[in-house]
Amino acid sequence: MSQTTLERPAPAAEPAHAARPKRRLGGGTLLFIYTWLVILWLIVPIFVMIAFSFNDTKGRYNQEWQGFTFKWYGKIFEIEDLTKALWTSLIIAVISSLLSGALGTGIGYALGRYRFRGSGTLNLIMFATISSPELIMGASLLSLFVSLALGLGAVTITIAHVMFSISFVATIVRARVVTLDRSIEEAAADLGASAWTTFWKVTFPIILPAVFSGVLLAFALSIDDFVVTNFTAGSVTTFPLWIWGSTRVGLPPQVNVMGTLIFAVGVLIAVITNIRSRSGKRG
């Protein structure tokens, strides 16, 4: 009996240019596009400010590009009142950020480490301070200063800025303290370190990046605050108040120059902090 061999048909050769599946916009891609659109929306005004700091405008600030020049950077301190307002804002921001950093670090450490009577109320007050409108904060502080017969000026501005900045610093520090590894502190205590020594030699260096971030945030909130400052300034003029008062007649180019330099310093600090943080992790 002969055996019949069944031959299978050879598979068809695939075309040289096979059709590739079409890419569809997934949730991740849409989120990526949305994120960059938001970032672009936020940084466009900053780029406009930087560009017009080089505008060769004739007179007060206007929206027409009239040429490129560096001359305004050489005349940055030409307007005496504007220079005084800038230095006032910088001094108040430095003092208020340091005070907020010291007080907020203590509050954040206590809330993150211990459970005590009134901690829930303190948490509620902190988040109420963060979420409350600046109009309410400014009006309430003005009523407090008037009732205490405190003359409005640089001191009341500093107190007001410390009041609303403490909550931000405390929140940042508390978040870092909650994730702190307690075994490191326990090891230091086992080796004979006191509670004070353990805090300064072990705990504080670990939470220092969070403290530094809180201080920088307090500085940024202070230097550009307008609403609360307007309620508590009295006859003192800060940088935002001077800009608001000058918008009626037109802003001089020096405002854009100062804003550009402040933004550049902030970016430089952020870059240096990021580089040091990465080098510390690698080491």
UniProtKB/TrEMBL annotation:
Instruction: Tell me the keywords, alphabetical order.
Output: Cell membrane, Membrane, Transmembrane, Transmembrane helix, Transport
Note one Pfam family from the annotation. BPD_transp_1
Q: Which residues cross the membrane?
A: 30-54, 85-112, 124-146, 152-173, 202-223, 255-275
Highest taxon in the source lineage: Bacteria
**Predominant location category:** membrane
User: Subcellular location, in the record's words?
Assistant: Cell membrane
Name the InterPro entries for this protein.
Answer: Bact_Polyamine_Transport, MetI-like, MetI-like_sf
Q: Does the keyword Membrane apply?
A: yes
| Domain ABC transmembrane type-1 span(s) in chain numbering | 86-273
**Looking at the keywords, is Transport present?**
yes
Protein's membrane topology: Multi-pass membrane protein
Q: Which PROSITE patterns match?
A: ABC_TM1 (PS50928)
**Would you identify the family this protein belongs to, as annotated?**
Belongs to the binding-protein-dependent transport system permease family. CysTW subfamily.
Task: Tell me the protein's name.
Answer: ABC transporter permease
To which species is this protein native? Paractinoplanes durhamensis
Q: What is the lineage of its organism?
A: Bacteria, Bacillati, Actinomycetota, Actinomycetes, Micromonosporales
